[in-house]
Design a protein that fits this description.
By secondary structure, the chain is of the alpha/beta class. 50% of the residues lie in helices and 15% in strands. The strands form two sheets. The chain has a five-stranded parallel β-sheet, with helices on both faces. The protein has a three-stranded antiparallel β-sheet with strand order 6-5-7. α1 crosses α9, α2 crosses α3 and α4 runs parallel beside α5. Bound molecules: adenosine-5'-diphosphate (ADP) and zinc ion. The site of zinc ion has 8 residues, from loops.
Length: 220
């Protein structure tokens, strides 16, 4: 099964992707996490990506697609993948379709997690993330049990550089200009299902899994 989670920054893709990957036993590929990891390691890719990320811009397609194609060639991706934060442009979507087609595969489902703009801004500006397992928290809506510490793994929580107000509004702008057209792209192929991203993490997770199961059953 090859699934894409589509949604604006702050829609909850990351949280849902972790849960759904575990539930459906899929590899979880998050291009944002891969870029942040490359930065931590100080690689050339990481340095290049940082130039764009800190401004809230997209990393160029060429770089992103090359990294993604290498990642999906790994053995853990054979059983299926949940894509989180990729594709983000039409060119990326087309490159992914082409690469899967070459392996006789295709995207099965695209889940669009929908959240209103004001809510996105609120969520992103209070977001804290675990350095170790990347679990997200929110200082108001989902605080950790112990301040500054991850409930799941005890890791240290930090605020991402691009979660500052000016960068957040740029990221939202970029989403509506460059990524939102993918909603049409996947609607046209009949692969898009919309899930309401407002509510508890658990409810959104249930909505996502129900949508995926319904679609999977419909295809059989
Ligand atoms: P969010 O969805 O909250 O913005 P991500 O971790 O998915 O967080 O992405 C953070 C940043 O990483 C993006 O703003 C962008 O600069 C870069 N990035 C991640 N995925 C892609 C992609 N598919 N194409 C281009 N840039 C990307
Ligand atoms: Zn953690």
């Amino acid at each position: 099964m090859y699934i894409i989670l589509l949604g604006a920054p702050g829609a909850g893709k990351g949280t849902q992707a972790v849960e759904v990957a575990r539930e459906l036993k899929l590899a979880h590929i998050a291009t944002g996490d891969m870029f942040r990891e490359a930065q931590k390691q100080g690689t050339a890719l990481g340095l290049k990506a940082r130039e764009y990320m800190e401004k809230g811009k997209l990393v160029p397609d060429e770089i992103t697609v090359a990294m993604l194609l290498e990642r999906i060639s790994k053995p853990d991706c054979r059983q299926g993948v949940i894509f989180d934060g990729f594709p983000r442009t039409l060119a990326q979507a087309e490159a992914l379709d082409k690469a899967l087609e070459k392996q006789g595969k295709a995207i099965d489902e695209v889940v669009y997690i929908k959240v209103a703009d004001e809510e996105l801004m609120k969520r992103l500006s209070g977001r804290w993330i675990c350095r170790q397992c990347q679990s997200p928290y929110h200082k108001i809506t989902s605080p950790p049990k112990v301040e500054g510490k991850c409930d799941r793994c005890g890791g240290e929580l930090y605020q991402r550089d691009d979660d500052k107000p000016a960068t957040i509004s740029e990221r939202l702008k970029v989403f509506f200009a460059q990524t939102a057209p993918l909603i049409d792209y996947y609607t046209r192929t009949g692969k898009l299902v919309e899930v309401n991203g407002v509510g508890s993490v658990d409810n959104v997770r249930k909505g996502t899994l129900t949508a995926l199961r319904r679609e999977a059953a419909g295809r059989k």
